[in-house]
Design brief:
The chain is mostly beta strands and 278 residues long. It folds into two domains: 110 residues, 7 Propeller (Methylamine Dehydrogenase, Chain H), CATH 2.130.10.10; 151 residues, Methylamine Dehydrogenase, Chain H (7 Propeller), CATH 2.130.10. It is built from no helices and 24 strands.
Amino acid sequence: MHYDSSTNTIVQIWDIQKNRLIKDWNVQGSSPGPGQTGDFAVTTLAWSPDNTRLAVICTGGFVQVWDVTEGSRLWTSPISNGRGVSVQWSPDGTTLALWTFNEQMEMLDAHTGKRLFQTAALNFSQHDVDGLSRGITQISESLVWSSDGTRLAMLIDEQSTSVVQVCDARTGQRLFTCQHFEGRLTGCSWSPNGRYLAAGNIAGGSSADETLGEGSTIQFWDAQNGKALFSYQAPRASERLAWSPDSHFLATYNPQDYGHRGIHVDFLHFALQVFQVV
């Protein structure tokens, strides 16, 4: 899929085997509501699990779901702001979970766009790593479904402490908070077999003593109760975590070094690493 780079309102579906454009459409067409700007620039696209629908987030404060085969809009629902919104389909394709710019989780019926419930929590998907250099940020998965679709894990900032919370996906009720460790969590991920929750834990040193993130780990918890199980040493800050389908391996996207850019620090030389989970 692709959207036009000049106006960001044209969504295109391509056959990558034949390098052929299959269908395109313009997401404009809905009238802006209260608090919306009418800006339909696309910021986020997400496929449904069965590959028949596409969720589209627009800057002006809209989420749309489209039938990919017909190129027709199924519904449009307003959100407070389309910038910085992440969207995740439930494994069975019946529900959309949105983590919005104003730090709310919204659950929508994926067939109708009806809001099921919303809950407020402080999101830290972009956060300062060492407390000193404001130029260092990490982008993390802030909201992930369990493979059976009954629960959601969320990375939140609770009283200035980063934690993983697990809630009931049907009601939003908090079930438990994973055991806390010093450091900043990033890249939350749920093993496909439902046994583990994992997240990168950025810890150790600062840009001042040239040891930024050297004490980082990948932390694992029991996904049923949040009890800490074990951790693996990881180079600096593990940003992305991806499980193999059999839950035996975990791939991570790690920075190997960092460099200074004026008063800021940027991570450099990223590498893919794979861990065997035992």
